[in-house]
Amino acid sequence: MQTYLVGGAVRDRLLGLAGSDRDWVVVGSTPEAMTAQGYLAVGRDFPVFLHPVTREEYALARTERKSAPGYRGFVVHAAPDVTLEQDLSRRDLTVNAMALPAASVPADAAAPLDTAALVDPFGGRRDLDARVLRHVTEAFREDPVRILRLARFAARFTDFAVAPETLALMREMVQAGEVDALVPERVWQELARGLMEQRPSRMFEVLRECGALQRLLPEVDRLWGVPQPATHHPEVDTGAHLMLVLDMAAQLQAPLPVRFACLMHDLGKGTTAPDVLPRHIGHEQRSVKLLQRICERWRVPVELRELAEVVAREHGNIHRSAQLNPAAVLRLLERCDAIRKPERFAQALLACECDARGRQGFEARPYPVRARLLTALDAALAVSTEPVAQAAKGRGAQGPAIGAAIHAARADAVTQALAGAANDNAGPSV
User: Fold this and answer.
1) Is-contact 121 97, C-beta < 8 A?
2) Which end of the chain, N or C, is less packed with Cβ atoms under 10 Å?
3) pTM over 0.85
4) Cα 375 from chain centre
C-alpha cells in the first residue's frame, strides 16, 4: 500500500499558499484493508475514508467511465491494480494532477516541498509556472461540473490564463448540451464558491466565453451590450459594469449574500425596451421577477434571495436617498423591513455601495448614503415602542392608530438624528 498527497494541497504548497485541505490517494489497497486499519468509510459513490486520527480524506486510487449525461453518469473502478498515474489522469486540470509520496510531505505546513519526489505525469508543474489552466486528458469532457470548477479557479488564480485547447473543449461540451444536465445543487455550489473568490468577474467572463453562462444564467449573459445611463459612464455597458461591481464586492470583503445581491440587482436592464433606453425605466421590478426565477432554478437559499430582492427593488431609491426628507427616509426603511431586520438592511447598503463604486473612476469615492441611512435606522430602532403604544391607548387609539403613533415617534427620531448628522458634517462656521 502506497499513500500520496494529491490535488489542491500540492498545487497550493508549490505556489506558496497555505490553508488547503489535504487529500490523499491510496494505491494498492482495498476497502476491507482500510477499515481493518481503523479508517472510516464515508464515500457514497466511490471508496473514500477518514483517517482514524487526523480525519483527513483518503481515497482509493480509481478510474472512471462515462455512462450517462451530466456529472453523475459514471462507473467507478477502484482496485489494488489501479495505478497512481491512472488516478491522476481522471483529474480536471494539470495543476491539480500532481502528487507527492506521503514520506516526502513535511510535517511543517510552511516547510518547502521536496520537488524531486514530485509525481507529475501531465506537466502540472510546467503549467503552474506558466500560469495556465489546462485540462489533463479528454476525460475532462465527461464531467460538466469541471467547466464551473475551471471558471472558479480563474476567479481565484487571477493571473492564470485558460489554455486555448481547454476553452475549445469547454465550448464543445456546452454545444453538446452537457451543462444542461447539471443538477441545481452542484451549479449553486460552484457559483457560490466562485462569487467568494478574489476576482469573481473572471468566473463569469470564462463562463461567457465558452457559452456556459448563456445556458446557466441567460438573464446575466444578456446584460452585455446593454448601454448604461449617462450618469453611469455609458462607455461601459451593463455587463461590464456588473463585473466591476462584483470585483468591488470582493475588494470590500463582502459576504456571500451581498455578492449574490450584486449579481442580481440589474437583471431587469437586460429586458429594457428600446424606447425607454438609456434610462431603464422600471428595471427594478423586472430584476426582482428575474432573480426569483434564478433562485427557483438553482435552489438559492431563501435568505440570499430575500436580500437580493430588497437590493434589486430599492437600490435606486437608496442611491438617491440623500435627496429624501426624513419622512421619506423612514418610509424607505419600512419598505426594506429594516426595523425588523437591521442586519439585512446593513448588507443591502453594502451591496449598494459596491454598485456605486463599481464604475470606472468611482472606485475610491466615498458613499455617504450608507452612513446617513444607518444613522436614520439607529434612531428609529432607539424608539421604545411600548411607552408610545401605551400613551396612544390612553388617548383612546386602537389598531392602526397605535401603529401610526409609533410611526410618528420614529419619524421625529429620524428627523432629529439626520439634522444632528447634518450639523456635524457642516463643521464649525467661519
Assistant:
1) yes
2) C
3) yes
4) 29
Burial 7-22 (b: 16+ CB within 10 A, else e): bbbbbbbbeeeeeeeb
Cα–Cα distance for residue pair 243/207, rounded to 1 Å:
13
State the pLDDT at residue 430: 28
84 closest CA partner among 57, 108, 60? 60
CA distances from 158 to 131, 162, 199, 201, 328 (A): 9, 11, 7, 10, 43
Q: How high is the pLDDT of residue 302?
A: 97
* pLDDT given at position 17: 86
Q: How far is CA 205 from the centre of its chain?
A: 14
| Element spanning 77, H or E | strand 74-78
CATH homologous superfamily of 1-123 equals Beta Polymerase, domain 2 (3.30.460.10)
For 155-169, the pLDDT digits (tens) are 999 999 999 999 999
Please give the biggest Cα pair distance in the chain.
87
**The pLDDT of residue 50:** 93
Angle between helices 184-195 and 145-156 (to 10 degrees): 10
Q: Given the C-alpha cell 392608530, which residue does it identify?
A: 401
Instruction: Say what the pLDDT of residue 428 is.
Output: 37
Query: Which spans in 217-341 are helix H?
Result: 218-221, 238-251, 256-264, 283-298, 302-319, 326-335
Q: Which residue is it, cell 494529491?
A: 6
Segments of the chain with pLDDT less than 70: 19, 45, 65-74, 229-235, 272-282, 423-430
Residue-wise pLDDT for 180-219, tens only, equals 999 999 999 999 999 999 999 999 999 999 999 999 999 9
Write the secondary structure of 2-59 as one string of H (helix), E (strand) and C (coil): EEEEECHHHHHHHCCCCCCCCEEEEECCCHHHHHHCCCEECCCCCCEEECCCCCCEEE
Domain with residues 217-382, CATH architecture = Orthogonal Bundle (1.10)
Domain ranges of the chain: 1-123, 217-382, 383-424
